């Protein structure tokens, strides 16, 4: 599954390069708050797998400093909500440094952890940070959907000489996925910055990332019964955005629907729409693009409220039909 | 005997780069030294102020040995930093330097003393009052000034400015107060991880000393015994706020709590050197981090936009200049112990002024970075990428 893929990726990269190490809360002796790092401390010990106190700003700064001095840290946030305490280190110390130093000082670091909504964890623990981190030059921002994405993209992120924000999703950790033969290789990587067409279609382009790829595929299956063939694009990377893939698809289908869990204002979908407007695909649109997003509210707790705060399959189906005017 | 003196004279000419001989040489109205080397004291031991200690049985020694060569070297370094900062002041007032410019004059003994006690292979990180350290860590004056003036010959090609200069084992120059402290602890972690016996000197000011992230860094550094020397340069004012108005405890050397600490006279380069040596030994022996408070003073305001006299008196500034100036302290020590001649110092001053003037010339005549460079250095080791310009038709290119 997704979790095992992440574990495998880290294990392989720890073995491959002794400069790689993992730090974060509960990553070592607890085997990871979400068990993503299970077994790694036992195998690699205190030096390579480090439990930190609950001090995000401090340990994130330490991780960035270690990267500046030649190591290749993986800095885990128990959830990206806690990264807000450390966001200055991510943006000002990590992302901007290569530019400010005109190439003298690089920061080869991965910031990873669960992002976005979970189940019943309420407002302070459910925010999606794709748009916030995706806004900043100097960062690469990655959002895997399935196990293969998780493994290939995490390996690429660790091997990348630049700061990478790696957005996982807690609800995906336990989901089983088939892994291809190719992905079993210790050198299997997926390039950062390239989206993947998960399902070919002709009537509408759905652009999405992370958990909502599943939702879009499910919606597409339902729509197919009514003769509507959806092309589903799994972004895989938020920054840099694979605009070419999106444009090629829109030029084929003439319709665009974006789907994300984050809030609508200034979000990933907003950026995709703006980019499509500015490029050649605009002239191929037969209808304005539509964004399907989380509801513009802090996340509530009660299940009925939470369920209705996030895009459901019916919302996606509804939006596709509205866009197609059927 | 005469032959012997000539041999010694020639050898020492090579070392000091000066032509000193047994005769008097007149050049116009200038008289060069007319004494032989046998007259100068090659080495002397000085009493230095005892350091206050926190959680330590004993502190650094109360005596420091200084050789003539060391003295002249420290003098040269401090005077260079002094002249460089004053030149920056001048260029800023001429609007050739823009934005933030935080000057270090008054604090030279800190940078010079620290560098004297560590190796080039050790690491150092500081905050934004960084020009002095940029120099002591090996960057040429002209590259520093050209960075301040935003030219392509600047150490960061004009893209960083005053607060973002870097060199091998020197991690800037950091603009966010306190952020450099966890970074420094991280660099120390890398030293420990790699087992290279190096230490990281992590500097911050009295203003930053209250930042929460410092205490987070102290905690982890102590827990993991990181080889980190945390140094607070206490210049008594965090921008316009005196230490008494900002800190519930102004004993910055004790603020590490469970981390041992030293309070050091930061105006005495020998004190700083001995304390740093002590601290480095402590870290290298695996005892973990240590905190040092350097009591120092800045002559300028917080930055060039702060005249620096609304929150302190001119009398106070003048008092420090006349009684505690780090460069004068060293010079007076050497002169009163017959370690060098007045004229030697004058010659050094002249040479430094010339060097700084030439650097300023370079910094004002070097071209600005070309626009083609605008988007470069976003990522390392990446293929070229397109960068969005100010409008959709402006597609710019970025190379690593």
From TrEMBL, chain A:
The keyword Mitochondrion applies. It catalyses: N(6)-[(R)-lipoyl]-L-lysyl-[protein] + pyruvate + H(+) = N(6)-[(R)-S(8)-acetyldihydrolipoyl]-L-lysyl-[protein] + CO2. Its main location: mitochondrion. Its EC number is 1.2.4.1. One of its GO terms (biological process) is pyruvate decarboxylation to acetyl-CoA. Residues 2-175 form the Transketolase-like pyrimidine-binding domain. The keyword 4Fe-4S does not apply. Gene3D superfamilies: 3.40.50.920, 3.40.50.970. GO terms for molecular function: metal ion binding; pyruvate dehydrogenase (acetyl-transferring) activity. Transmembrane segments: none annotated. Heterotetramer of two PDHA1 and two PDHB subunits. The heterotetramer interacts with DLAT, and is part of the multimeric pyruvate dehydrogenase complex that contains multiple copies of pyruvate dehydrogenase (E1), dihydrolipoamide acetyltransferase (DLAT, E2) and lipoamide dehydrogenase (DLD, E3). These subunits are bound to an inner core composed of about 48 DLAT and 12 PDHX molecules. Interacts with DLAT. PANTHER family: DEHYDROGENASE RELATED, PYRUVATE DEHYDROGENASE E1 COMPONENT SUBUNIT BETA, MITOCHONDRIAL. This is Pyruvate dehydrogenase E1 component subunit beta. It comes from Sparus aurata.
UniProtKB/TrEMBL annotation, chain B:
InterPro entries: DH_E1 (IPR001017), PDH_E1_Alpha_Subunit (IPR050642), Pyrv_DH_E1_asu_subgrp-y (IPR017597), THDP-binding (IPR029061). It catalyses: N(6)-[(R)-lipoyl]-L-lysyl-[protein] + pyruvate + H(+) = N(6)-[(R)-S(8)-acetyldihydrolipoyl]-L-lysyl-[protein] + CO2. GO terms for cellular component: mitochondrial matrix. Pfam families: E1_dh. Its EC number is 1.2.4.1. The keyword Ligase does not apply. Its cofactor is Mg(2+); thiamine diphosphate. Coiled coil: none annotated. It is found in: Mitochondrion matrix. It is an enzyme of class 1 (oxidoreductase). CDD domains: TPP_E1_PDC_ADC_BCADC (cd02000). Residues 78-371 form the Dehydrogenase E1 component domain. Keywords: Carbohydrate metabolism, Glucose metabolism, Magnesium, Metal-binding, Mitochondrion, Oxidoreductase, Phosphoprotein, Pyruvate, Thiamine pyrophosphate, Transit peptide. One of its GO terms (molecular function) is pyruvate dehydrogenase (acetyl-transferring) activity. One of its GO terms (biological process) is glucose metabolic process. It comes from the Eukaryota. The pyruvate dehydrogenase complex catalyzes the overall conversion of pyruvate to acetyl-CoA and CO(2), and thereby links the glycolytic pathway to the tricarboxylic cycle. This is Pyruvate dehydrogenase E1 component subunit alpha. It comes from Sparus aurata. The gene is LOC115569930.
